[in-house]
Write the structure tokens for this entry.
Amino acid sequence: MYVGLKMLKDFVTVTPDTLVKEADKILEDNQLWMLLVKENDNLVGYVTKEDVRAAMPSVISSLDKHELSYLMSKISVREVVRKNITTIPPETEIEAAADLMFEMNLSGLAVVDENKKLIGYINRNKMLELLVEEMGLKQGGSRIVVDVEERTGVLYEVAGIISNMKYSIISTGLFHHDNRRMVVVRVATEDAEPIVKAIRDRGYKVVGPEDFMDEWKS
């Protein structure tokens, strides 16, 4: 899956000429912590709530109400915009974007085309939504976790057992825990016991929460 297929396209932006006080209202009304800044559809950078709030009261102490009102009508986003923004192209793989966000501790990424035109945005909420989608949670069924050895073809073998029993596989995933490889399969059935038995009969170890109880006890 690619970022361009899942990115947000309808989101609030401002321009360098947007007044700081207007940006503050936009942030407050939309419950945002950051706004992307664009000019003529090209990405300029971003501005945070902290930047905006820092710019607004910085002149209060020595000015009267009229002077303050005049100054606030002049201070624009241009004065506080941050230009060190990380961007990605729409063809970036979802997992690569997620890894970049994790490594750089980012809450979102701006998506730009080859001409640096801002075309989208993807954030942590969207990434979590995609995780739920990829694991097939909302499609129901049963989740089976198989603790397997690290070797080629294991996922194919487990999927083959299920397929040969004429069950539909909703999703598959692969996770690691303490150097153990966990194959997670969601199957389109409410009763997974026949599948679990078949997998165990083939020598595989099917695990559940009870197998990890000792690890999360305080």
Remarks:
- The first helix runs from residue 3 to 6.
- The beta strands are 13-14, 34-39, 42-48, 87-88, 108-112, 118-123, 142-148, 169-177, 180-187, 205-207.
- The mean pLDDT is 88.
